[in-house]
Each structure stands twice: as structure tokens, then as C-alpha cells.
């Protein structure tokens, strides 16, 4: 409204200036007309009047044009203000959405950390249980191996057990009652095992009995290894060789550590002696 009033004021000022100029020209013409005839004076007055109307009309057109430009400028200002308000509202909405997304991400991160901690705790518990089960299995295997070695070392006891079943039952009961004591002392005692080699490397030897994996012996720098009576390394032991090993169960890891390994390469069976000699080969009944 102020711009419109300013433009109107400018138009009126221009009209006044034009009117003043016209008046000055009229005076000049009047002075000239006094010297002219009455007809000439009337004609000049008409011309002056028409020119004044033309000037006023031009001034009015200029004022109207300026007024229209002022109106368009006002509309542009209003449109820019509306666009600014819309941009501010959009920016505020995006900021709120970003804050909500950040809160959701933090919540998901905390949930993932909680799940990871629970999974880690479960894994540690399972690992401890597996170690306990492995130690128990190793101890049982050691006890069974010790019992088997004792039976192999004392064949007379087997014959006595076959001849006297009651005595064998009593010995079994005594052995069963003594198992807790042996289990407690086993980690600190040296034990032995005899069997065949399933696999061998510089770090470990897998010993089997009757074709079944029995014991996995860990080989260290202090382990004494002999193959066919000669010093060697565990990697020199061939698959299928017969071994007699002494070991001790490590208290910290629960794994059997080999102390000494004596291996004998698998040999071809000896040919039987002639029948007329009257003697039988060793190990063959006559």
C-alpha cells in the first residue's frame, strides 16, 4: 500500500510539473497571442488544451504502469515469504526424522551388543563344558589303557581269572572301588600304552588298539623317540607301526604328553620251521 501511494504521489507530482510547464508555455503563448488576431488566439488555446490533456494522459499511464510493477513486486515478496516458510517447515521435519532415526539406530546397537554379550557368555560356558568333557574322556581312556597294559604285562593274572571267576569278580570290584583314587593321582603319574600307529607327525602320534583310535599323544622337545631301536623323530614313525609309549597327562590342558615312544616297523611274518626238525616256531603251538 505504501508503494502504491508513493507511485500515485510521483504521478501527481509529474502531472503538477507538466501543468506548471504548460502554464508557463501558455503565458508565453498568451504574450505572443496578444499580438495575434482573436482567431489565432482561440486556435492556440485549443492546441495548448489538447497538449495539456495529452500530457496528463501520459502521466496517468506512467503512474498506472508503475503501480502495476509495484503490485507485481509485492506479489513476488509474498511468494518468497511463503517459499521461505515452506523451506523452514521442511527443514524442521527432516531434522525431526533424522533425530528419530538416530534414536532407533542407538537402540538397535544396544540390542546387538546385548545379544553379542549373551552369545559370548554361552560360548564360554560351552567351551568350559567341552574342556571338562574332554578331560573326563581322557581320564577314562587313561584308566582303560592302564588296565589293558596291566593285563598285557601280567598274563598269569588272566589265567588265574579264567580259572577262578570269583577271584576275577573280586578283583574287578576292588579295581572299581580304587578308580577314584587312581583318577585323582593319574595326572601326576606316568602311564603306558601299547598299540598301532594310525598317524604320526612331528607334533603328535595317534595310537589305536584293535583298530580303534585310542589316544592322541602330544610330542614335545623332551619326548624321546626310537624307531627300531634307533633315535628318531615322531615324524619318522610309519603308519601301522607298533608302539609302546609312556606318557603323563598335563594338569593344565588335560592332554597326554608323550615322555618316551618306542616304535617297531611292521615286519613280514616269519616262515615256519621244517617239520622234520621236531621244533615249532616261536609263538606257534607244537
Automatic annotation (TrEMBL):
Region spans: Disordered: 22-286
Chain intervals with Polar residues compositional bias: 35-49
Biased composition regions of type Low complexity, renumbered to the chain: 79-90, 97-150, 157-192, 269-286
Biased composition (Basic and acidic residues): 24-34, 51-61, 69-78
Keyword terms of this UniProt record: Lipoprotein
Protein name: Putative lipoprotein
Organism whose genome encodes this protein: Corallococcus coralloides
